[in-house]
Amino acid sequence: MTMYAAGKPRLWLWLLWLALFFSAWGYLMLGRGLWPVAAEHWPMALAMALGSYAAGSTPMGGGTVGFPVLVLLFELPASLGRDFSFAIQSIGMVSASIFILARRQPLAWAMLKGAMLGCLFGLPLGIFLLAPLVPELWIKLLFAVVWASFGVLHLWRLQEIAGHSGMTEFDERWDFRLGLNIGVLAGALVVSVTGVGIDMVLYTALVLISRADLKIAIPTSVVIMAFASVLGVLIKVTLGPGLAPGVFENWLAAAPVVALGAPLGVYIVAKIGRKPTLLVVSTLCVGQFVWTLYSEQSVLGFGGMAVALLAVAICLFGFEHLRRFGARLAGKRLVAAQMQVDNPRADLEPEPAPVPVVSKAPGG
Hints:
The protein is mainly alpha-helical. The chain has one domain (about 10-340). Helices cover about 75% and strands about 0% of the residues. It contains 13 helices and no strands. It has helices at about 10-30, 35-40, 40-55, 65-75, 80-100, 110-130, 135-160, 170-195, 200-210, 215-240, 245-270, 275-295, 295-340. Helix 5 (about 80-100) crosses helix 11, helix 7 (about 135-160) packs parallel to helix 13 (about 295-340) and helix 9 runs parallel beside helix 13.
């Protein structure tokens, strides 16, 4: 289910990636004369310094900061925030993923492979069939609700989630199927609309159902978001209408920051622990929900805000159901393991019962 690769880290692979990226970015800046464009969008680079750290150290992608900054602070269209999330995470999350793989960190490979395959089908369906039908306001609300519920989950259950060790061992085919369903549904319903989210959904399944250690769950969520982000950009650029106007300019300014910031988050959090960072980011997730309701109160009205709060409550109810389901599964596995210890031959075929020997009576 997980992979603990033997051998020394191969950080030269990450350094090679950085050399290739900064060579390409430097060509755009100097060879194509785009430095003034990047300098004009310096606020996004500053914002993504925090976003990239969160992307590498938590299950929340860089779009968790990039989306609300563009949409709520700069009051730009939500579709721009979504496409920027795809584009910026294609650098930051990819850089963090290469760093994770080069360091040979453990990943939940069975579930990750299923999620990748599911996303390969679900994300294009969502981009072409669902995303064009979703109004700008609904994009904002979907982002706000999902991230708020995720933040509340961690503020409520962080001690328990951070206390997990290892991972509940299920059948790898079961893990693969669960990842496959997550990839299809999260790719079609969340990522295609907001540009982020599959990382958080997969992470939630890992910590609530599989009761995975954060050292496994968070790197796995980083890798799946990198995959989804690159896939989203490729679909939009090659098959779709392209990225929204303004994405490239903001990307130019923020890309070099996230290329280093996301891996830095991976490294620093290993030194200071994940609890402080998760608490801060979870508080930001709840804060952006309050900010969204406040900024859209004239459009939503009391009824709309009540529906948004109800949606958060429903998400939390679903999280709690998954948590109890995971606890039951873990309990069953513990009982089965104990039975195996008490009776190590229980998994072997029972020996045939001896055939009774019946002696004949004299003269019989």
